[in-house]
Structures are given as C-alpha cells and as structure tokens.
Design brief:
The chain is an alpha+beta fold. About 25% of the residues lie in helices and about 40% in strands. Strands 1, 2, 3, 4 and 5 form a 5-stranded antiparallel sheet that branches. The longest helix has 18 residues. The radius of gyration is 12 Å and the shape is globular.
Length: about 80
C-alpha cells in the first residue's frame, strides 16, 4: 500500500468529539512503525479534546479513507 490520505475521527466511547475540526494524515499502513504515528495522533487529539472540555474517559480514534469515508482502522491506546 502506498501513502494515502486519511481522516482521523476522535471519540469518547461512541460519542465523537472535536467533530467541528478536520484532522487529516498521510500515511502508509504497510510500513513498520505506523502504529507509533497513530498512537501519537490519538494522544494529541485526546489532549486537544480535554482542553476543549470534552469528556475523554474512553478515547478511541477511527482512521477513515479520506476519499470514501470507509473506516480502515479503529485505534485505541494500549
């Protein structure tokens, strides 16, 4: 898989937070270490959500194809 454009959607459980913002990322999901990139983005978006007074008891992130909106990864912290 080549580098693709993805949209990141941050959730607290089932509730989407920061939905008024667009978060995009160019990433190759076949390259070793992509997990670290997704972990850093989840951490940063969780921090931003808390700063915006959003509840973040159970943070998770959906990585969606920017063109189709299809969820390609459902990411949580380990």
């Amino acid at each position: 898989m080549a580098t693709q454009k993805f949209r990141l959607h941050i959730f607290d459980g089932q509730y989407e937070v920061l939905h008024h913002q667009t978060h995009e990322l160019f990433l190759d999901l076949d390259v070793p270490g992509y997990e670290n990139t997704l972990d850093r983005h989840l951490w940063a978006l969780t921090r931003d959500a808390r700063a915006a007074n959003e509840p973040m008891d159970s943070p998770r992130m959906e990585v969606r194809d920017a063109a189709t909106g299809t969820v390609v990864r459902n990411w949580t912290t380990t």
